[in-house]
Amino acid sequence: MAWMRSSNPTLNDKSFQGIAIDGTARMTLDGTVNKTGILLVCAMATAFLTWRSFLSTGEPGAASGFLVLGLIGGLIFAMVTIFKREWSPVTAPAYALCEGLVLGGISAIFEVRYPGIAMQAVALTFGTFGTLLVVYRTGIIRVTDKFRLGVVAATGAVALFYLLQMILGFFHLQFTSVYGGGIIGIGFSLIVVGIAAMNLILDFDLIERGVAYGAPKYMEWYSAFSLLVTLVWLYMEILRLLSKFRSRN
User: Fold this and answer.
1) What is the value of pTM for the model shown?
2) Domain spans of the chain, in order of start
3) I need a surface site. Which of 76, 112, 166, 208 has the fewest CB within 10 A?
4) DSSP the chain
């Protein structure tokens, strides 16, 4: 199954390998769409909970407890889901609930400094998602081997950069120009947002191919989880990009 390749670490060329095929309960596109909708509702529900906690005091610190809980829980459930795909009908919703706490907390922190930025980021994220889905379904962008390789390589480069930055952070070293609101910083964020968006195209393609492969029913939950991972990444990068634009004012 060499064609099953995605730069999303949760949904790649090995996602549909080594799984038993159940002829009576196979993965469907409609089922995956429905599961994705359920996970989005779960994430938005807990994000609203954290957001409401922030609104009640006007201080992002009010949401810090939810944020820490979400970070720890999200990491645990993400790892379990990746290594135990058959558990995804339970662990994927749990991950979505935890991730919502994280998104709500981080959004609250940005909202304090840049009022209105969270709603702008949400609108742009779903707008990008909808646009790319239409673009993919109409065949305007075709997923070729070269396209996959390019997106995978670019995503790997971004991951390595973030990892390097994390390591350097322990020594109080940072690429300030990249994270600032200057031309370099905004340009970098635009590139990363573009790469995250292209990962959605790969996810759409891989989900469609998983349906054609006849993957078992639980892979609907796993694929929805993987798509949520990409959407969260895209939202965070858009939020960061908008903050850079706003910092210039």
Assistant:
1) 0.86
2) 29-247
3) 166
4) -TT---SSTTSSTTTTTT----TTSB--HHHHHHHHHHHHHHHHHHHHHHHHHHHHHT-GGGGHHHHHHHHHHHHHHHHHHHH-GGGHHHHHHHHHHHHHHHHHHHHHHHHHHSTTHHHHHHHHHHHHHHHHHHHHHTTSS---HHHHHHHHHHHHHHHHHHHHHHHHHTTT---HHHHSSSHHHHHHHHHHHHHHHHHHHHHHHHHHHHHHHT-BTTHHHHHHHHHHHHHHHHHHHHHHHHHHHHHT-
